[in-house]
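User: My advisor asked me to double-check a structure prediction for Methyltransferase before group meeting. I don't want to rely on an old file, so could you generate it fresh from this sequence?
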Amino acid sequence: MPRVKTKKKESKKDQVIEELFKICKRKNNFVFHNDLVKDVCKKIGFGNPFDVTKLDNKTKLPDILVEHDYGVIHIGSGKHKFIKGIDKVFHDFEEIQKTIEWEYKKSLLNQYNSSGSNILSVTNNQRILHHFLFGQDTEFDDVDITKRPKTYFPHRTKTSFEYNFGKDAKLEMKNIQIEVDLTIEFQGTIGVFEAMLEKFRNKVFNEDVLKVLSKLPDGSLDMVYGDPDYNVGINYAGKNYTTKWNDYIDWYIQLTKECMRVIKPTGNLFMMNYPKQNAHLRVKYLDDAAYDVQDYVWVYNTNVGHSPRRFTTGHRSILHATKSKDNNFYKDNVAVPYQNPTDKRIQGRIADGHLGRMPYSWFYFDLVKNVSKDKTFHSCQIPLPLVEMLIKSCTQENDDCFILFGGSGSELVLCKSLKRNFISCELHPEYYQMILDRFDNNGKIKNEYRLDFIQQKKANGKGHHKKVLEQTANLFAQKEENDIC
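Assistant: Sure, here is a fresh prediction for Methyltransferase from the sequence you gave:
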């Protein structure tokens, strides 16, 4: 009687993989992101999305992948891919031809945990890995392992603990994730080191931005966003940073060079300025230094800066630069809803999981009005929905963003709400203090940091602000008149 091949019992993890595979097959795109994994896990009811793609050997593959001859690989930046050909993904172990007798010598941290990183560390420090790769030597034969300097591979773990302070106070933490970037051991002393970026994450510095950038390691950030002074005479609470044109462009190029250095190969840089300033940046540096440069346009209405000799300036340039063809960009984070959802072609795209179309390369956002709830006494605020779109377009939660100029602090508060790590600088002491106060006040703007007429209105219940409005209008008129883009 012929044997009947029985299918293994399908787990919820198998169901998640099956659904992911069907979605990718339907789209004819076999690359998928962790976000899709989380969505499918939520739908199926599987509580550990990070375990879905951990398929260590062929026996763990669900039936649908076996039937279609597909495996799964991780390709970086939160992305995975179904690969045709299971044998390309998994390699059968060969029989061991030779064994080496090894006298194991216990070291301080060898028994620390059973994680893969610790096993690699033990193998490395016992020199098993060295001997396997390069052959046996006698370099350390007469030196006991406890007297050798050792390094341990980075690892992460989750743990719970409690600590009592005398009789009345207790610190208790449950299921806390701890990440260790480097552990060293020498002569019984253990040192634990965190990565350099931890010194900068979610902090704003009252320092020059170039000084802070210079301290960051190469290729460490997911995004950099800059809205520098445009060199057109803006007054920032009594300070003016306008300089000679050539000196300004030299500074702008130097700033952008540092920004390109610190973004990852998958990272993105956005620099906002007037078109003339950005044109000089492209021609004199960025077009040669970047893998790709796109020029977007932010369009807005304005009632200042009119002239009988030219059209009124109502836009700014946003340069988008990348270091490689593999830059992260997430259409679903910023998709614009379809305007004709009843169209059959559009209905098909919606059925395939598309959330909308990619935004065009021009964006309309109103200027931050003086009466806006987000408006502070900062002279040149950028509308938050615009910055939010840029951040969401190329980052995910826990990614690292450098907001070059802290300004009013609105972009930093936005990063916190979007669960993005931020780094920022603000040289102006009054703006810097405002940012710190906003952090202490759950992002809210204290009355003292608003425009004078808003303060008076809140204090008196009246709107005596005509003079202040005229002064503000004149300020922007001067700025627009000086703009020769």
